[in-house]
Specification:
This protein is α+β, with helices and mostly antiparallel strands. It has a single domain, classed as Topoisomerase I, Chain A, domain 3 (Alpha-Beta Complex), CATH 3.90.15. Helix content is 46%, strand content 20%. The protein is built from three helices and five strands; from the N terminus they run H-E-E-E-H-E-E-H. It has a three-stranded antiparallel sheet, with no helix packed on it. A hairpin with a 4-residue loop joins strand 1 and strand 2. It is globular and about 35 Å long.
C-alpha cells in the first residue's frame, strides 16, 4: 500500500503508459499500464483536481482525501480500506446482473 500512498504525479508517464514506483528499500521499478487503465487515471485526475482541490505540481500526491479546506495524501490505512471495500461492491453488482 505504501507504493500507492507515496505515488506522485511525476511518477505517471502517460506517453509511455508507465508508472514509476518506489518500492520498499528505495528500489525503483517501472510498471507498464494498459491504455484503458491510463485513461482511468486521467479521468481520476480530473475528479481529483475538482473534488479534492489537488495541486497539479509534479511533486503532488496522486491519491488524495479532503482535509478541512484542502487536500492530504491518502494514508496506507485508508487505501487498505478502499481495497477491501470495492471488490465486495463489484462482486455484489455482478451477482445482481447475473440473476436478472
Amino acid at each position: 500500500m505504501n507504493e500507492l500512498s507515496t505515488l506522485r504525479l511525476r511518477d505517471l508517464d502517460f506517453e509511455e503508459k508507465q508508472i514509476h514506483v518506489l518500492r520498499k528499500g528505495g528500489k525503483k521499478v517501472v510498471v507498464a499500464v494498459s491504455p484503458p487503465s491510463m485513461q482511468d487515471i486521467k479521468d481520476y485526475l480530473a475528479v481529483r483536481t475538482e473534488r479534492y482541490r489537488g495541486s497539479n505540481d509534479d511533486t503532488a500526491y496522486v491519491f488524495l482525501t479532503r482535509v478541512n479546506d484542502g487536500a492530504a495524501p491518502l494514508s496506507n490505512r485508508a487505501i487498505e480500506a478502499l481495497v477491501k471495500k470495492y471488490p465486495k461492491a463489484f462482486k455484489s453488482n455482478n451477482q445482481c446482473r447475473h440473476t436478472n
